[in-house]
Target: Epimerase
Amino acid sequence: MKIAIVLGATGGTGQVIVSELLERQIEVIAFGRSESKLKTLMEDHDFDQRLSYKLGDIFDYQTIVNAAKDVDVIFQCANVKYQEMEGKLHLLGESVMKAADILKKKIVIIDGIYVYGHQVAKGDENHPQQPHTKKGKLRVEFEKLIFSNKWENAKALIVRLPDYYGATSQNSYLQPTLEGMAAHKNSIFIGNMNTPREYVYLPDAAKMIVNIAEKDNAYGENWNIPGTRLISGKEIIQIARKVTGNRKMVIPLNKSAIRLIGLFDPFIREVVEIMYLTKEGFVLSGEKYEKRIGPVPATPFEKGLEETLRLLMHNKN
Model:
């Protein structure tokens, strides 16, 4: 891979993939709708000559075609808001796959774990897809679209991430907790603070995603991206307090509280149906990655949370 394009480059996963690609001396085209955000991304990378940007609309396949004609791999990191998923997710899939098919390109799709529903077996790529939520069912249809036989020229793969954290994270469940702690304010924790859950550090996820993308035989498959280990909210708060010195209140929000807040917030309203993950957890297996790619990068939570919180605190100043 000599040149890649990152769709949704200014988002949480997009930013870390841009960084990882540049770290490997790969030329990167950052693609998005907001020129101001793309210029900020350029500035964050000290205007690295290997990084350029193209303006475009993820729902307009022709703008992707125009921007991606010279690349080796397309990384699809753009997403739609929870409250818009029913109307827009399929359209996004159609657009990016049509562009990849026209260009005869490899495309890496970043996705989550809603397709699995409740965990009933080992969390490998063969886990039954039995979603009980609207979002999970939409994601199953999205996967069918990505791997549809109608794309004769595109070569696609899907990587699935659990909940994640990192300085670039924007919409993860843990983000409001860490932002509140970094700002020395009272903060919230979405879900049960006693449930051990899986989180992946975004820079680790980016390494794994790019490693997979570089393997020609990885395409046409699903790949799970595991986290470091299980950790409870209470342990996360303990680590965050050591880093920030913030001793203020952290308020756990259960399903009832989320449902109440959702009366006034359309995004939070859509979180209610996937609160099962905050209560039960879901653990992904890294066996396939270890067997086919190599050791799973696993930054200890103490280090990953410290790096995240220090960057958040720096950005607040």
Q: What stands out?
A: Residues 142 and 315 are 36 Å apart (CA to CA).
